[in-house]
Amino acid sequence: MLYSRILLVLLAGATLLQAQTTSPIDPRVKAIIEEVRQLQQKQQSYEALKKLDEADAISPGNAYIANVRGSVYTAPPLRDYVKARECFEFAEKLMPAAFEPKFNKTELLYVEHKYAEAEAGFTKLLVDFIKLREDVRHLVQFKIVICQLKQGKVAEAEKTSTGFTFMGDTPAYYYIKSAFAFQLTDAEEAKKWVSKAGKIFKPQDNVVYLDTLMEAGWLNSIAAEGDTK
What we know:
The protein is mostly helical. The chain has helices at 27-41, 45-58, 63-74, 81-94, 99-111, 115-128, 134-150, 154-160, 172-183, 187-200, 203-215. It folds into 2 domains: 1-112, Tetratricopeptide repeat domain (Serine Threonine Protein Phosphatase 5, Tetratricopeptide repeat, Alpha Horseshoe); 137-229, no CATH class. Helix 3 packs parallel to helix 5, helix 7 (134-150) runs antiparallel to helix 8 and helix 7 packs parallel to helix 11 (203-215). The longest helix has 17 residues, at 134-150.
């Protein structure tokens, strides 16, 4: 499954999708979060949690830190979804109008393969946050497509995919094509679409899509050509 989870500070800064926070982030905390990201890439989750304790000492009761802690609990080797959800709910309590905690809670449903609930959650996010950046919106729509395909709702997935083209500024089109191919058990065709995206877009643009395919059980690792099962 997942060997290089992008920190879900929404995927917030760590996962490239940082929305607005209610107050500036202490530079010392940002530096620690960067260390945590590096530790996560090495699956050194316990060391990452210790670093986050240092961040908590600097800025107690910080939603930003809670989001990161939740992402650490979500990823291997911990995979502690109970604690992860507690972190995300705490962050949401601190920032009830923020996008990140709501996304992270829904992403956790996706990671747990609760596709119907995740689809509903991601769909609500698009309704509640109509001014999302295009890259964030496309990623959420892609996740909805996966949820629908996993439920066998092919017609709905095709409708959700309407409007995406190879001319887009995000890799969404290519990964949607890949997802449909995976659903049809055509792994070779799916790999071709993943490979095309890897040649066109930067690694940091592709990684969140690869991660989504991995959590769906369609990829073994984040690799340029999508190492399939």
